Amino acid sequence: MKKTFTLLVLLTVGFANAQAFKGKGDTKFDITANIQEHGSGIRFTSDFGMGENISFGILASYLLSVDKDGLGNKPDFEDRIDVKARFNANLGNVFNIDEKVDIYPGLDLGLRNFGAHLGARYFFSEGFGLVTEIGFPIAKYNPDAIGFERLNNQFTFNIGASFNL
Question: How much helix, strand and coil, in percent to the nearest 5, is found in the chain?
Fold first, then answer.
């Protein structure tokens, strides 16, 4: 029940503050479900347009559902959370794709690693869109990570929504 309540509060706050990315001077906010080995959670991203095809942003993720280790231990808060700075190259208009579609490769620098991501957004209207993204570490700060240290240091798949109020 606690997890469900926390998820509903986070989603409500995220939906109330969400905006879709459009280019220079605009802000995009996504809420996605994070799926990875041994855990799943929720992820918030906010990207700020610095040019027609470039954005910088921040990402915060929290793993809600995590497998226990072999001894029955659950991860602590610091094992579940990750925060990253992001850079995206928004290429939807470069590839001359429909203006409702945005494809964006990017780099991120976080608490646990330096990584890359590839995402795509499709906007059904000016105010609502879907987003999907994959991410993976390029350089881990602790290459010999074991146990819960590996949670935010692996390939991730994310799917969710973008909103523009």
Answer: 15, 50, 35
